[in-house]
């Protein structure tokens, strides 16, 4: 018998009245990987995760975490799961330490172990010196760290983080990323939802992109880019281009889209279907520019970003 | 300065929560008082007439039935006993056998008055009711010549009586003005901290003094609007008669001064508490207690001497006095003194509030 | 049960972490009590001055009759000016002047009334003729004998105090129960509870326990105030029993309300909105059967009226309800059961995986 997956989602459907929030999702999260769930607001991301954590019941299909049904074996499932909610869900009037102690009590951690685990987690969150301060006085980053420490307190096998860096400054974001990578290093499975593709790219082993409750793509970040991205050539000319130059470049083979803004040109090259096709169009573009009397002041060829992958896949940006 | 007043007023008009916090407590109190006023009604009383056929007894029964302090029902002895035991009636008046004959013979027959003495108030109503019935009975002449020779001549201080609800309304108006001043100015100040807009104000070339003055004036104007609306509604409901212009001006002056006192205390509280969550309950409780301690809905004379002493140093007392004169009794007598004291209180409020908020803004 | 205890403790720690808010919620019923103390004062004895001409036996008898009328607080003065001054200084509301020929046929008692409002003025207008009747009582052709049902009569304040105790339990229970749960939704911490490996009922029990203890503090505060006002319960065990049952009923309903409403600003008005009318229809001033039948009918649906009756019984040994003692306790117990069901049911409904 094969080992149960960290998360197994099969034919998952969720309807609210006539509205279908999740429409037949299938995916499997392996143990020990960091799995990202991406999608714009309203794509069905939160509903999916609610069903995985047992807060919501599927209309059809099934969910299992480490082989456990989160609804029927709720208590067992909750012990396996550590959750870092987006709104952090901390008791603002209480101290950091009290928040952790309460969690320890709720999760039935034996009294003699509690103090040790709480202080270890405070240390992990770098909040030891603020242990007796009210959470209400903390910055967004500190709250997020405390919420992460709380989720890890009962040593879950699966950690779910909902938009872990939303509204957190750049420095705090790096710290949180390090925590997430450390979780993986300790052998935990991590599920995260995010709006930031950069974040998904940096952290995730695999990413699922969902839109309108359906799975649009599922692969490693690199493969997603290779498959759905387009390279972009950015040009800055000496003078704003004439209309005939724009028409000529637009008509070239391998050029998919063209945008102009003053002396700047943005040339989207045709999808990187095979090998060197996009780069091959670059000399042709440059040749056209000099043929029609233009002069290039600056040139940049860059890889597609996941934002553009996403735009290509769903026809809309992540944060519309 | 005018810009600040306008901004704070605009915020106020768009904040139903602030209006609710301001208007609900006085309205709730008014509801309580109105219910209390309605709750005081006549009590059910059974009359047992064992002197069937006696003419004087029949007259006494009629007199009791006509008395508006009781809801009287004539019952048999057994039925009356059962009704009394089952709490359907509060008292039973028994007219003894041979009552009419004894009366005629001058043997001074005795009525029996069984009273369910639950508490002093309802019991006293019953205790006072029977002599009232007896007096009316004697006045009918059914017991011969009426021995009562004293007449009472009444002279009233005010030209006409006002209703209890209108009387209490005016006390509530004072509470409303104080609370509105407190909450409006206080919340406007607290908001600057909560939204962080205090920074923008501090870097603007406006002096802190005009900033605070802006909050106080906006708070007072908003309070006046609330007070005028409430008074207007009360007049429209027929509880108050429309005041003459001088009376209206006196009432408005009293409102403004009391609200100014409230606004001064409000900004001081804001500087101390700095959050609406803490500010609201403190403001509501503070205005409740000042309302209570000023005697609230009763006249000063009814209060024990120590409370009367406290009431005399609470600005509400003087506002209520001015409101009563101007809005209830159609007079302006004594209101100058009231307004003077209110002005002193308003100045004191500002003297406390403005420096406190200024210090608060400074760091 | 372990989780329930942890949740209750967590709530109480939070309550103590915000002393201002805690004091305010706990003190709410005390404000109510003070309001009614004022009522009792206003509806009580009327301060009047009496100017007498000499001290004839008739004059003395009349002053005594005024004192016995259970209406007036008599302050003798020697001149009419003093009487007028007392009114102006708001130390009295009426000045009574007795004539030298008091008691002679057609003698006239004059009274100046500060008719602040019709209610206060009518107290004086009724009280004076009663004093006159009292003055003539020995000479009247009719006499009367009062038979009281109980050897002592509770004071007005002492009597309504019992209803205030009930309404304090109602408002305190609803507020503590409702706010404790609504707070979890407002702060998003409900997730922490929902994702913990504990059954829903243990969350309800924990919340209930915290609400119970929080509201109990308020109830005890009211009790202390009542003791200071001179209320002396004769049956302490009965008093404690009603207190616990009623608190359980309303704390459970509060937990249910908090789960259904999820915001504190809706719980507050609802608690008061329920408390005030129930206070007034549930016989605070006398038996409900003495008032309007419709109000009494509505009052019988709710537990407040039975709680009031049981409290009156515990405090004064009187029974103010036409429902028997046993049946009333049965209804209170049934309400406790219904309250608990509602609390658990509404919480589970609010948190069910849907």
Plain-language structure description:
The complex is a heterotrimer of chains A (320), B (363) and C (354). Helices cover 36% and strands 27% of the residues of chain A. Chain A has 320 residues and is α/β, with parallel strands linked by helices. Chain A folds into two domains: 7-226, Rossmann fold, CATH 3.40.50; 230-303, Alpha-L RNA-binding motif (Alpha-Beta Plaits), CATH 3.30.70.1560. In chain A, the strands form three sheets. A six-stranded mixed beta sheet of chain A has the order 5-6-7-3-8-9, sandwiched between helices. Chain B has helices spanning 2-13, 16-39, 55-66, 77-85, 99-104, 120-139, 164-195, 197-203, 208-236, 245-273, 276-293, 305-311, 315-328, 335-362, and strands at residues 43-49, 70-74, 91-95, 110-115, 151-156. In chain B, strand 1, helix 3 and strand 2 form a beta-alpha-beta unit. The model of chain B has no long low-confidence stretch (mean pLDDT 86). Chain C has two domains: 2-38 and 154-351, no CATH class; 47-139, Anticodon-binding domain (Rossmann fold, 3-Layer(aba) Sandwich), CATH 3.40.50. The longest helix of chain C has 32 residues, at 156-187. Chain C starts with a helix and ends with a helix. Chains B and C meet through helix 2, strand 4, helix 6, strand 5 and helix 7 of B and helix 2, strand 4, helix 5, strand 5 and helix 6 of C. Strand 5 (151-156) of chain B pairs parallel with strand 4 (108-113) of chain C, so a sheet runs across the interface.
What's the short story on this structure?
The complex is a heterotrimer of chains A (320), B (363) and C (354). With 320 residues, chain A is an alpha/beta fold. Chain A folds into two domains: 220 residues, 3-Layer(aba) Sandwich (Rossmann fold), CATH 3.40.50; 74 residues, Alpha-Beta Plaits, CATH 3.30.70.1560.
